[in-house]
Design a protein that fits this description.
28% of the residues lie in helices and 22% in strands. It is an alpha+beta fold. The chain has a domain at 10-54 and 100-238: tt1808, chain A, CATH 3.90.1570. The strands form two sheets. It has a six-stranded mixed beta sheet with strand order 1-2-3-4-5-6, sandwiched between helices. Strands 7-8 form a two-stranded antiparallel ribbon. A hairpin with a 4-residue loop joins strand 2 (100-113) and strand 3 (118-125). Helix 1 crosses helix 4. The longest helix is centred in the N-terminal third of the chain and has 22 residues, at 15-36.
Length: 267
């Protein structure tokens, strides 16, 4: 059973569900693309990995000497107690807290030419970490620059209302809930952006494959419905409670109308 919404289901954006939705969409997109790609092209799932070093700024760095250096008076007292006592002067070490190393991964779909194993197109579905300032966003933007430098077509799909938008060039696209950006090698640095709202259908995405190869269409809504069904989200989502992040008053009223017409029971 598909989601009751004509486009994106805002309840799927909940951080508790998004990781599974993200992975499910990556798999569904690969499957759909491999049904329509030419024989010499293949869609595959890949990932890039980066390491971050983070230290908790609120954590106090505590230190203590490993060897206690006794005072002069304590040495005298010890000497009187035993003639065998000796004073050892040893430099004390300090215990420190090193940055916390975290290995992080981001999954994506890439289309490769099987003859030369060359990456033709990269499709990325944004995660919350891509939309917050910090090392994760920096790593993502660095990888995006690598795609541009390598001459690969790039598709960014943003199905999350929360967080800061990634750079989509000038002039800025109209403010909206969701976006799809398609950068074609032959058009770079120009790109096309499709903004769409919660109340609209998710647009079909034109997937560029090269100057001499006709593009193929990706039906994102179909992929989302597959994830919704196979992940049994109709049982998981709490439609009786506000989604996270919350909707505006008007969108919440609209969503309530949609759900009231749905056979699902609000829970």
């Amino acid at each position: 059973m598909p989601s009751p919404f004509p486009g994106m289901d805002p309840w799927l954006e909940n951080p508790n569900h998004w990781s599974g939705v993200h992975l499910g969409l990556i798999v569904a997109i690969r499957t759909q693309l491999n049904r329509v790609l030419p024989d010499n092209l293949v869609a595959d799932i890949d990932e890039y990995v980066w390491v971050t070093e983070e230290i908790d700024s609120d954590r106090e760095l505590l230190g203590r000497p490993d060897v206690f250096i006794p005072s002069t008076e304590s040495v005298r007292t010890s000497t009187r107690a035993s003639s065998r006592a000796k004073t050892q002067l040893v430099s004390g070490s300090v215990t420190v807290t090193l940055p916390d190393r975290k290995v992080k991964k981001n999954r994506l779909v890439k289309i490769i030419n099987v003859e030369g194993d060359r990456v033709i197109t990269v499709l990325e579905l944004l995660s919350p970490s891509n939309k917050k300032s910090g090392s994760d966003r920096d790593a993502y933007m660095s990888k995006r620059r690598e795609y541009f430098a390598a001459g690969a077509n790039l598709i960014n799909i943003d199905l999350l209302r929360d967080g800061d938008r990634i750079s989509m060039g000038r002039p800025r696209p109209p403010v909206s809930d969701y976006y799809v950006l398609v950068s074609r090698t032959e058009m770079y640095p120009e790109a096309n952006v499709w903004p769409f709202s919660l109340r609209e259908s998710i647009p079909e995405v034109t997937i560029p494959l090269g100057e001499n190869i006709p593009p193929v269409l990706l039906d994102l809504k179909d992929c989302l419905d597959i994830v919704y069904d196979t992940g049994r989200y109709q049982r998981k989502l709490k439609y009786g409670k506000p989604p996270s992040p919350p909707l505006s008053r008007l969108d919440a009223e609209w969503a309530g109308t949609i759900l009231a017409k749905s056979p699902r029971k609000a829970r």
